[in-house]
Design a protein that fits this description.
Oligomer: single chain
Number of domains: 1
CATH class: Alpha Beta
Strand order of the largest sheet: 3-2-1-9-8
Structural class: alpha/beta
Radius of gyration: 19 Å
Order of helices and strands: EHEHHEEHEHHEHEHEHHEH
Largest sheet: 5 strands, parallel
Number of helices: 11
CATH topology: TIM Barrel
Strand content: 5-15%
CATH architecture: Alpha-Beta Barrel
Length: 315
C-alpha cells in the first residue's frame, strides 16, 4: 500500500465527511389531510430549506401474513405505498435542488432493462438528481405476486447493477448476461449522471454483502439499527474497501433514525426530537441520515421547525 492510500482506520483523507439530512416522505400525506398534494408540499419545503435528499420506500404488495410476522414493522397493513419512482417523478417537477432517492427500492421485482429505463428517466426529469438505495425485500409473497424469483435475490441485485450500468454507459450497451448477452442495445435517454448514477445497497452485512459493496463501489443504506451496530458495519466496509484496493473515503453511507409506529405520537411516547440520534449516526460514519417527521409534527406547518435544528447541526 502506498503512503497516500487511505487505511480502514483513517478513511477520510484530509476532507471532512459531509453531514446531510434526508427526509422520508412515507405517509407524510397524513400531515395534510391524506392528499398526495401533501407529499409534494413537504418536498417543496425540504427543497426550500436545503434538505439534501427526499426518499420513499417500496412495496409493490403487502402480504397480511408477512406483515404479522415482521416484528417491529412501523407501518400498518393499511398504509399507502406509493410506487416510489413514479411519485418521485412528480416530486422532481415541483423541486429544484433536493436529490431524489429510495430507502429502499426492491430492485429484483423489476426487470433489469425496465429498472434502468425508470431510473434514467427520473434522472433526466430531475436534471441528474437521483441517488437510490436498492434492496431485496423480505416477503416471498411479493416476489410471487410480481413473477420474480425469491431465491438468489441478492445475487440478482448484483446482476441488476451491472446491467443498469451497461445500459447507462452509452449506446450501444455492452453485452451483459442479464440482458440476454446482447451487446447492441440502445436505451435512451441516458441518465445525466451516466453509469455513475449513485447507487447504494440496503442490505445486511454478511461477509458476501460486505465484499459485494466493496467490489461494486456502491454505498450502504441499511434499515434503522443501534448506532453501535451501524458504526461496526461502517468500519467493516471501510476495511473491505482497503482490502479491495478501493479508497473507502467516497463510499456513500446513509443512516436512518429509529422509526416509531405510524400511529404513535412522539410526545405521547416520550420520544425526543431525533437530533441526538442523527448526530450519533453522523459520528458513526454516516454522511446522510434519514429522518421521519410524522410522529413529531401535527401538520406540514410544523415541518420547518422539525427540520431546522437538524439542518443547523449539519451546517
Amino acid at each position: 500500500m502506498s503512503p497516500a492510500t487511505p487505511t480502514a482506520a483513517e478513511p477520510l483523507g484530509r476532507q471532512p465527511r459531509p453531514r446531510r439530512i434526508a427526509l422520508n416522505l412515507m405517509a407524510i400525506e397524513h400531515l395534510a389531510g391524506g392528499s398526495f398534494d401533501g407529499v409534494l408540499e413537504a418536498a417543496r419545503i425540504a427543497d426550500r430549506l436545503g434538505v439534501h435528499r427526499v426518499v420513499l420506500p417500496d412495496h409493490v404488495v403487502m402480504s397480511a401474513h408477512a406483515h404479522r410476522e415482521r416484528d417491529g414493522f412501523p407501518y400498518p397493513l393499511s398504509a399507502s405505498w406509493l410506487e416510489p419512482l413514479t411519485a418521485l417523478a412528480a416530486v422532481a417537477a415541483v423541486t429544484e435542488r433536493v436529490r431524489l432517492g429510495t430507502n429502499v427500492l426492491i430492485a429484483p421485482l423489476r426487470p433489469a432493462a425496465l429498472l434502468a429505463k425508470q431510473l434514467a428517466t427520473l434522472d433526466a426529469i430531475s436534471g441528474g438528481r437521483v441517488e437510490v438505495a436498492l434492496g431485496v425485500g423480505w416477503q416471498q409473497a411479493e416476489y410471487a405476486a410480481t413473477g420474480a424469483t425469491f431465491e438468489g435475490r441478492t445475487s440478482a441485485l448484483v446482476e441488476l447493477v451491472g446491467a443498469c450500468r451497461a445500459l447507462w454507459g452509452g449506446a450501444p450497451a455492452a453485452a451483459h448476461p442479464v440482458l440476454a448477452g446482447i451487446g447492441d442495445l440502445h436505451a435512451q435517454p441516458l441518465p445525466p449522471q451516466g453509469d455513475r448514477l449513485p447507487l447504494s445497497f440496503g442490505v445486511g452485512l454478511g461477509p458476501r454483502n460486505v465484499a459485494r459493496i466493496a467490489e461494486l463501489g456502491v454505498g450502504w443504506a441499511p434499515a434503522p439499527m443501534p448506532v453501535e451496530d451501524f458504526a461496526a458495519g461502517v468500519a467493516r466496509l471501510r476495511a473491505a474497501c482497503v482490502e479491495a484496493g478501493r479508497d473507502p473515503a467516497p463510499l456513500p453511507v446513509t443512516g436512518a433514525v429509529t422509526l416509531l409506529p405510524q400511529e404513535v405520537r412522539a410526545v405521547d411516547a416520550g420520544v425526543p426530537h431525533p437530533l441526538a440520534e442523527v448526530e450519533a449516526l453522523w459520528d458513526a460514519g454516516a454522511d446522510t441520515v434519514i429522518v421521519h417527521p410524522l410522529a413529531h409534527c401535527d401538520g406540514l406547518e410544523d415541518l420547518p421547525g422539525f427540520l431546522s435544528p437538524l439542518l443547523a447541526a449539519a451546517g
